[in-house]
Amino acid sequence: MTDTWELGGRPVYTGAHVTRRQDDALLSGRGTYVADLRPSGMAEMAVVRSPVAHGRITAVRTAEAAAVDGVIEVITAADLTDVAPYPNFAAYTQTPGTFPLAQDKVRYAGSPVAVVLAENRYIAEDAAELVEVDYTELPAVTSLEAALEPDSPRLFEDWSNNRLLDLQPDDSEVAAILAGNRVLRRRYKMGRHTAMPMETRAALAEVHNGRLHLWCTNQHAHIARTTLSYVLPLAERDIRVVIPYVGGGFGLKQHLYPEDVLVSWLALRHGRPVRFVEDRAEHMIAAAHARDHMIDIEAAIADDGRILAMRVQVVQDLGSAEIFPGAWCPALTTAAHMTGPYDIRDCVVSVAAVTTNKTPGGSYRGFGVPEAVFALERFIDEIADEVGVDRLDLRRSMLLQPADLPYTTASGALLDSGSFAESFERVVELGEHAYQRADAQYRSDPDSRVGVGYAVLFEGVSPTHHGASAHWMGHESCTIEVQPDGGVRVASGVTDQGQGTTTFVATLTADALGVPIETVRVELADSDATPYGLGAFGSRQAVIGGGAILLAAAEVQGKVKKIAAHMLEAPTDDLVIEAGRVHVAGSPVRAVTMADIATTAVIRTIDLPPGMEPGLEATARYEPELMEHTPDEKGRINANAAYANAAHAAVIRVDLGTGEIEILDYILAHDCGTVINPPIVDGQIWGGIAQGLGGTLYEDLCFNDLGQPQTAFMDYLVPSAIEIPDLVIEHFESPSPNTPLGMKGVGEGGTVGPAAAIGNALAQALAEFSPQIHETPLSPAVVRAMIPDQRT
Amino acid sequence: MTAPTARRVEPSVEVPISVTVNGEAVEAVVPARQLLADFLREELRLTGTHVGCEQGICGACTINLDGEPVRSCIMLAAQVDGSAITTVEGLSSEGLSPLQQAFKDNHGLQCGFCTPGFLMTLSTVDPEEYPGEEGIREAISGNLCRCTGYGGILQAVRTAWNRPQDG
Ligand code: FES
Ligand code: FES
Hints:
The complex is a heterodimer of chains A (792) and B (167).
Chain A: H1 23-27, E1 43-49, E2 55-61, H2 63-66, E3 71-76, E4 105-106, E5 112-118, H3 121-128, E6 132-137, H4 144-148, E7 163-167, H5 172-179, E8 182-193, E9 202-208, E10 211-216, H6 221-231, E11 239-242, H7 258-270, E12 274-277, H8 280-286, E13 290-301, E14 307-317, H9 329-336, E15 346-354, H10 369-387, H11 391-398, E16 407-408, E17 414-415, H12 420-442, E18 448-463, H13 466-469, E19 476-482, E20 488-492, H14 501-513, E21 520-524, H15 541-568, E22 575-578, E23 581-584, E24 587-593, H16 594-602, E25 617-622, E26 640-655, E27 661-671, H17 678-697, H18 713-716, E28 727-732, H19 749-752, H20 754-765, E29 775-776, H21 780-784
Chain B: E1 14-21, E2 24-31, H1 36-43, E3 62-65, E4 68-71, E5 84-86, H2 98-105, H3 115-124, H4 132-139, H5 151-160
Parallel strand pairs in B: 1-5
Antiparallel strand pairs in B: 1-2, 3-4, 3-5
Helix pairs in contact in B: 2-5
The complex binds FE2/S2 (inorganic) cluster (2 copies).
């Protein structure tokens, strides 16, 4: 591990507007996504899904479907005799024993029960309708409150309750503080929504020379490969996972879904390519849902409103929990963020994750942090109201100041740097100004109210995977090879769902080696071509993938210099590497090219310095030293390599007649440490805010009392260009002293703040009606109900 | 899993069509129920037309059909007999068109899945009918993007339509 991280060359591309690598292909329709693959002889799969939310399967009749012309086979769980359930490595949870097809029970409407393999998808869907399944229906558990009831029906009969996870830490110290002070209690909820990438899930399996090749939309080539080897009767060496162009992941594609296993199993069985392309209606009920948290806060409050201590209970609704990796980790992440960037020393959080008869919850950008920020930031505004202090001053009295850093939060997060107070003040300055403007514009409009709301937050980035899987940890890998013509091949375990990872890898490799970016070829997301890495999750790829690149490049460059020194008969310390050439400092003509050096290293090895091994490549792995994987005896953990921070302000207008919220201004001050590619960072922020606003204002996945999903894609209301305002983005740059080049992650920050900022703006706008704003989404109907009827 | 008699569920009706796609004449016999998007993607292998919802909502499958932006996921291939179609593959015969270049220069795409739909909508509508900043938003309001938050896309259109932000 290095003490000081640096680029081996001058930063030519780092920090510059490097255009993205794949854009020419994508703009002309030549990007190949999984659904675009069509090997000859391909068959297609359709899934028969349970219409029942909770029931026992008493009979499955497939003969009629199997007899349809063009149907190859119809399978049920009983056929999968050589398939193992997904593993569960988390000893602190109960195990759902997830199997790719429902065995004796279904636990959510949409659960896969049978599969039809046919010559094409049209025939497969026809035949799927002919599969008859008999169910004995069972009472459905459709809310987390119901799941917590002691006499609630159980999803898993061998469990004693519906709590997959139930962590109750010792709260005696906090209880003592609560007992001696004024206490304020509130309950907050964040609704159920989902990532909704524009590309649905897809998988295509083929058998080549006795090996399984799976092309899929998963976010991790190696984790997918390993997981397949656990579930299928295959050695890991006999599996290759390739992830081509992906149409957005946002966490939803972190999970290795049943369909990925099923196409693989069918391809192996029939010796022909098998493709599954999820349709949007399936996506609504079978791809991971997210959020669906309830947070109870009890806090001891000083006279001036400061929080002295907090006792928090986080409950996450997991749906049926039949998903891998398991989905309880957002609740743990919520717990780790409950104190925000404030000096709150005493905070104890209990965490429960419960099963209900709904689509399995899973990962989604933000991953538990939006829930924590919504609850805490609303709570602070409510304290200010209750105690009669200014909500901005109350934040100021608790916010971490530069002198407080490094600071370890009550949950164990090590905040080594950040611009918490500065970014907040900047956003307040801009937010108040925008609010004055809005107020002047609408003051005389009897049907409008305007308000401004703030949220200030930190966000753990580059986390350990252990919280989600209890199996994988946190490293990333990179191989850099300089080929005889001087061109560079870089292969890494990181993956690209469209966020620009490929461009980032090329940028950093070029600058770390001192070569032109055009000479760098990037290979990602192919388990055969790249060293074992963990891929995309938790805004980790720049920080941890970047660390691996820098380490591999430093090793290669060390050798480059030694060979060049030998060729130029100059000491290595006198050499400068630039634009693919090595020259003696002050004498640019005494130079050798990367091609000369690599040809020597790989082909004309007789010219190498005596005793030097041939070859010009290195593989490095980077695992951040300060990242912890398991909590200490008090439950504290520094689960992330870095912590980004941001402050949000929303200025809104509420239409009193319709309850509609119009966003007049949205301001964000953001700090992700050192920036590698400014447009990519801005794009991540815009996209994140759009998803955060969607989840706050429009998006809602509803179920009725029978557990029947009530939200079609048509009703889900992904924001369009009309709904997303122009954003004001202010950049702060507080490099981390502990990460490569001081980078932090940027993928999720935008998503985290909107619920809190909008909720607080709404509270101000409607203050005269004393609205109870404790839940999202804040749809027009919900907001309208906060406004007394006599108003209209 | 055996049954006495094979049963054919797929409707047997097939329809001959002739259609011009990206300037080339295509003669085909298509199943009557085949979606236009599937015909383009699976038969002609023009996979740049993406399918995001098959419900006419997301706009990813938008093509130019006789000069109009049309959602190819809610039309049948049989309906386009005698028509002329342009897909994203036909937008430019060499390099990138000015619109495509504007998307590239302004970070108007991330995953690129929605991008062909935006390009086809924008290359088919008349900018004059969508005046001002609000016009740009309206022109693309039938296309959903989940990655960009529309910031880069709006900037790309402003550039391509030569429309300054405050104009
Ligand atoms: S795929 Fe046609 S509108 Fe979504
Ligand atoms: S760029 Fe990914 S959906 Fe638009």
